[in-house]
Description:
Layout: E1 3-9, H1 16-24, E2 31-37, H2 44-48, E3 54-57, H3 64-74, E4 79-83, E5 87-88, H4 93-103, E6 107-114, H5 123-137, E7 142-143, E8 150-154, H6 155-160, H7 169-179, E9 183-194, H8 200-220, H9 223-230, E10 232-233, E11 236-237, H10 238-256, H11 258-271, H12 273-283, H13 285-313
Parallel strand pairs: 1-2, 1-4, 2-3, 6-9
Antiparallel strand pairs: 4-8, 5-9, 6-8, 7-9, 10-11
Amino acid sequence: MNFSVIVPAYNASRTISSCLEAIFNSDFKDFEVVVIDDASNDSTVEIAKKFPCRIVESAKHLGTHNIRNMAKNESRYDTLVYIDSDILIEPGTLIKIEHSFKEEPDLAAVVGVLSKTHPNNGYFSQYKNLYMHYVLNKCPRYIDFIYGSIYAIKKEHFQECWPLGRFGEDTDLGMRMCRKNLKILLNKEMEVIHLKNYSFVSFLLNDFIVPYYWAKIFIRQRGWADLVKKKRFSHARAGQIISIVLAGLTFPFLFVSPTVSIALVVLFLLINLKFFTFLFRQRGVFFVFRAVFLTWLDMLVMLSGIVCGLITWF
């Protein structure tokens, strides 16, 4: 089995070297690397040229969905492995992908998860990384979404579902594959390190934008049916969605009925107790104390993104 490793990049000069170095340090050797540069205006291309990879440069900034769409025409092999430019794979990551496809020949795609390790000690980077690790590891073995940081897909199935949607392309791709009864494996042993550094502002902005487009996909894909049947939509479990609603109700009820507001806070804490316990085991009590307030604020921002997404949809 041979892989075409696709690295979409845009102004990735801070991380592209570490990303490519990790790929070329892989124990698996039967692969090519194609860096698809989305008209970066920094030194991304110059850095990538130091590695034995093929570089495809876009003449203008096209966005992630178009860059990933380009890959099917630029890849040499039948299995595409997408790795974001701020991701570090382990030496055995590509071998795990190969084993997954060989053990289950009917797989259309294999998706990885974030490790608990994050090289940046900033609180928001640590929190976000642990949050995504926790959420993804709560998902079932076979899923109906794609997590864009690290996934492998057979080119024939990618072409079946082409072109990707303009926004939320990962979730959109997974949903399209699900409609075609294509099998997606979430390999929880395939952990990668995410180098993205979050500030308070970028953290909240990210968690507004993602739910904004998530809401549109939710309507387009009739996500309420999944909530009833699967108790989740994409990687968002029903409990998470309930928590988001509770976060939005707590503040208004503070002025109407403080008793109800307190009851909502207690319910919010109970629903997220397992997550807070996980954080306590990983980072200690002070981290969790801050996380309780940040989680409430974060879910309030998510609710704002969802509401805005629904308004613009309708």
